[in-house]
Write a structure and sequence with these properties.
Blueprint: E1 2-4, E2 7-16, E3 28-33, H1 38-50, E4 55-58, E5 64-66, E6 71-77, E7 84-86, E8 92-96, H2 101-110, H3 126-132, E9 135-136, E10 139-140, E11 145-152, E12 158-162, E13 180-188, H4 195-212, H5 232-238, E14 245-246, E15 249-251, E16 259-261, H6 267-285, E17 294-296
Amino acid sequence: MQNNNLLKLPIKALTPLSKLTTLRIGGNAQWLAEPRTINELSELILWAKNKNLSCNAFGAGSNLLISDNGIEGLTICLKKLQGHQIDPSTGIIEVLGGEFIPNLSRKVARHGLHGLEWAVGIPGTIGGAAVMNAGAQGSCIADRLISLKAISIKNGKEFEISNQDLNFSYRQSILQEKSLIVISARFQLDPGHDKEKLINITNQNLAHRLKTQPYHLPNCGSIFRNPEKFKAGKLIEQLGLKGLRHGGAEISSIHANFIINSNQATAKDVLELIEIIQKKIQTKHGFLLQPEIKKLGFN
């Protein structure tokens, strides 16, 4: 562990990243830090810049595949960057980027705010959800987001970006093309709804996700984006691929668009299983399934 005179936050050296991802896969971070405030995050970015180190960031590690070789430079895990302000009268909420989505979904329901019941089953952070425009049940982050604040990985400068300037589409935003970290987001929800009804809907949504997806096993969420007019999971299931194993990676028998770490899987196992699925779908249907997961540490 290193303590820099200009940086009060500890930075850990050669730290395994597998425990920080829901897939439980990944090599070591050359340097790892977990900021709790925006100021700490800013200091970390400048620390990496001054040492000429690359800088990468992720939240809950739920939509992520990290290389078996790990990640060079500074890796920032944002899941401790939590905090929120809720205005029950206007329905406006402001949330830090590391806030866990299921927790936020429950909190706003208890305030009688409608608009995030669908999000309770998404095991990620607000920042990651904004980058990916996460969604479920026909709703998505873009539906409720007013604006967000982001910080540049390159120089630590902060920006505010409106919904209209984020170029949202299905599982896409302009943030995927920029070297930016989401530090907070502002949403407009609908106030004045029955709290008990919202809580019940939220609980039912979570129960459905737990029943239909392998949440109890190490996985990284949906592997592929749904192609137009199709469901990726259904296409994979129709080819009889549920339960197919490659090394320690396995196509879930519960939901075919999930790959689980069934037996000490490596990132290589997962990537090769993804390729097997893609080739079989392309042979059958003539198009290539596009992965939804983010990769870090690969050339």
